[in-house]
Every structure is written in C-alpha cells, then in structure tokens.
Amino acid sequence: MGSSRLICSFIAASLIHVPLSSGVGSCVPRGSPELASITIQATGRNLTLVGKRLCWSDALFYCRDHHWDLLSIRGPEDQEMVDELVASTPFPLTRPLWVGLRRSIRGSSWFWMSGDPMDFTQWDSASHHSSPCGGVSSGEPSTWRPGSCREHLNFICFTGTTEVVKRYFSSSTRENPTCQN
Ligand SMILES: *[C@@H]1O[C@H](CO)[C@@H](O)[C@H](O)[C@H]1NC(C)=O
Questions:
Q1: Number of structural domains the chain divides into
Q2: Pocket test for ligand 1, best of 159, 162, 163 (most atoms within 8 A of CB)
Q3: pLDDT of 100 higher than 80
Q4: Which of 27, 82, 99, 123 is most buried as measured by Cβ atoms within 10 A of its Cβ?
C-alpha cells in the first residue's frame, strides 16, 4: 500500500504537480503509526475514524488508498453519524478531525473533495476562514472549522458512495500545496 511514502512531499510530487521545494520535508507524520480505527455503518456508507494523525493532504491520500475518500457531510443525518462515531471512539482524538472540506483557491467557496454537493453547512460561526483545509470539531453537536493544513489530526474516511460523483484531484490544490505553508 506504500505507507512508507505516506508523507506530504509525496503528495506534492504525485498529485499536486508542483516542483518540490526544500520546505516540504518538514511535514512528516510524527511518532509511530497508530493503527486503531473505528467504523460505523451509516445510510449507504461506512464511516471510519482513523487513529493515525496526518496532515490534511496525507489524510486525503490515506482515505483514497484504503477507503474511498475523506468524509463528506451531506446533511444533518451525516452530521449525527459523525457525533455518534466520535462518541463511540475508545482512543483519544484531536480537535478538529479532518474531513474532505477544501476551500477554492480564489474566492471563499468551500467544496467536498468527494464531489458531493454542499447543500448543507455547519460552520462554527466564530471561525475565520484563513486556511483552505477544513475539519469537524469533536463536540456535540460538532461544527465545521478550518484548520492549518499541516496539522497532524485524526480524520474520517468513508466508503460506499451510491451516486456517481466526480472527485477532485490535482487541479483543486495545485496552487496551494498544503504542506508548504
Ligand atoms: C460496510 O462494511 C461492511 C462490513 O465490512 C460491508 O459488508 C459493507 O459492504 C460496507 N458497506 C459499504 C456501503 O461500504
């Protein structure tokens, strides 16, 4: 599965298509890999909260390698599943947790990396949207907030999308390599 190359510079080289700069190497997962994870079955999808802590781009890569994608939250039911998942997790969690929230390079619109439409939002009203990567706080009820893309956080993956969706790849992050700033 290539986990030995699961570092941010690999993402920058293979997916984002930007020349590597010397600054990239600083974004390497710290500590020994945490293998714990917990999965729940939701409406047509399985949600897996991963015990590893990775920067946003590596979390995306990990989910696409082992599951389907970083989680998209399509409505209140999905949000409740997140709360349930967090509440039933036996290991310590970071706040926030990464999900597939990404802000467009120009402008302030956010989208799901999975390609799901963003008909529903649950932003923390106090958040300043200065970062292009988004997660969910692990409170009850959980809210969405941007976080520094380089932060090593727990994250939620999903499998089993029922609709044909167009996932976002390199073009969405090309000018904003997550681990360089
Ligand atoms: C969810 O996980 C179960 C158990 O591994 C599996 O049988 C099922 O096909 C999965 N469902 C989806 C939608 O991925």
A1: 1
A2: 159
A3: yes
A4: 99
